[in-house]
Structures are given as C-alpha cells and as structure tokens.
Amino acid sequence: MITNGNKWGVVYCPNHEVFWPKKTREKVEKSLKAHAVDYDFVQSEKKGSVARLVKMFINNGYTTIVIVGGDSALNDAANALMQVEKAVRDRIALGIIPNGTMNDFAHYWEFKEDDYDRTIEWLKSRRIRKIDLGYIHYQNAQGDTCRRYFLNCVNIGLVAAITNLRKRTHHFFLGSRALSFIFSFVLMGFQRLEYKMNMRINSETIKRKVMTVCIGNCQGYGQTPNAVPYNGLLDVSVVCHPQTRQFVFGIYLFLKGKILNHRSVLPYRTRRIEVLNSGHAPVSIDGRLMHTPVGSFSVGVEQEVINFIIPS
Fold first, then answer.
1. How many Å apart are CA 311 and CA 125, to the nearest integer?
2. Whose CA is closest to 280, among 160, 184, 191?
3. How far apart are CA 29 and CA 47, in angstroms?
4. Rounded CA Rg of the chain
5. Which pTM value belongs to this model?
6. Strands 234-239 and 212-216, sheet pairing
7. DSSP character for 7?
8. In what order do the strands lie in the sheet with 288-290?
9. CB of 151 within 8 A of CB of 131?
10. Disulfide engineering: 282 pairs with which of 147, 160, 250, 256, CB 3.0-4.6 Å?
11. Residues 6+ positions from 248 with CB-CB distance below 8 Å
12. Each residue's pLDDT tens digit, 246-286
C-alpha cells in the first residue's frame, strides 16, 4: 500500500447541468492551492466511476477523500467506503464540496455552492462527525440480494419520479432548487398517481393507496424535516393523495418546512420499515432513480458508520 495519509484524494464530478463546468474545476483547484492543501485530483467521467476512484484512493492509503459533486456522487462514495473493512474505514474521513444538481446533504451541514474558500477552510479543520447511513435491502431482477446505502433518503412513488424530472428541469431555473422542485411537483402531482402499498412500520401495518413515501436518514428533500443522520433512527413520511386544494396547500407547507402539518401526511420514526408490496412504484435513492426492487424489500439504518467532515 502506498501511504498518502496527509494528502487529500479529491474526486471531481462535473455538473453537466451548469454552464462552464471547466471553470468550476479551475476555481476549486485555485482555492485548494491558495489554502496550501496537498492533494491529488481525479475526474469522474461517467456513472459508476466515482466508486472506482474512491476505492483507488482507499487502496493507496488516503485518509481524507473529498467529493466535488452532489448527492448521487456522495452516495457512490459512501457505498464504496462501506465495502471495505471497518478498521480501514475508521481511518478515513469523507468530505464534500457541493457541485451537483441536488446538494441536499451538503446543505444540511450548511455547505454552500461556490463558497469554495470557506468550505475548504472547514475541510482543513477536519472536524469529524460519525454519521449514520440508511440502507435498502432488496432483490434485483436477476434474483441477486443487494444492499445499497443512502445518506439522505429513499423515495417510493411520486417524489421518486419528481426528483428524476427535477434533474432534467433544474437548468431551466438557473439553479434554483425551490423553483425546479415546484415545477416538477406541479407537472406530475396533478396526474393523481397512486400506488397500492403494503408496509409495516414499527407495530403498524399500512395497507392502502399512497401517493409517495419518503424514508429519511436526513431531511429527505424537505419531506422528513426533523430527521438527523446521527440518532440511529429513520423518519418516514407517508403521503396519501390529497384533493387539489389540499395539494396546493401542501406545496406551501413544503416550502415553509412544515409538510408534517398536512393532514394527508402520516409521520413515523423507526429503525426499520418492511415494504411488502410497493405497487410497482418507482424508487429513488439519494435523488437517483434506481431499478424498482423485485418483490418485497426492507429499509433500515446503521448507526455511526462513516466519518464525515462537518463545518467547524
């Protein structure tokens, strides 16, 4: 093993939804040099390469790995870390410089896009917090048993489709997170999509038509606003389909961070949820649409498994 304990491994994930992604890379590198950071810089070229590059840094002894990207790239990095032994993982700290279409996990910790100097100062301080990871345990179409970890949330149903559409509409609103989400919400919400689901949460069985379910390890794109990634619990919001007037009021409450006050939202807090039947609803994990799991699946949480660098 090559030892690079004092050098950062930086994985740059271009955000193809913004203008001049090359300029972003130049600004990040300029700030790294201005703060006298010793680093190696690699660029992710396609889906799946983030995990490969993170594993390369791990195998070469880097103990600080920084992702310049969004929620999906950070998800790939976390999953790569969970594939190594705990003793190795405990020596590594994961950091983020937000540069994605969706940066909700970074926003939770108050990291901001374009504020590279302040972000790198915080990363240099290396203030580490052990954080939880949620996971979804399922079988794929080939019958393989799979486990995928998440930092932010799993969405089942309407919002899974919305987050996918949001990525495609984001650039129309000059990077506005709220506007792109509202536009996507309105486009799809009035289609009145419902899914007949059967779930077990704690001791309760939910067997009814549902519009969307959010299982949040963190704030869940505003749907699980009280979730925190360090208490060993998941927050769950089950949204039954509201009438049109209630739907509009729901958007208002969502923007105010009070979505749980809507009478169509059933909130839960749990360590594990069993989805016995999802009604063939789409499923997304940290904002990325995944292939719908075949049959039943479960979602749980592992407590304090990743070292994450937070603001000082």
1. 8
2. 160
3. 23
4. 19
5. 0.87
6. antiparallel
7. S
8. 265-270, 234-239, 212-216, 153-157, 283-285, 288-290
9. yes
10. 160
11. none
12. 555 455 455 556 666 667 789 999 999 999 999 889 999 99
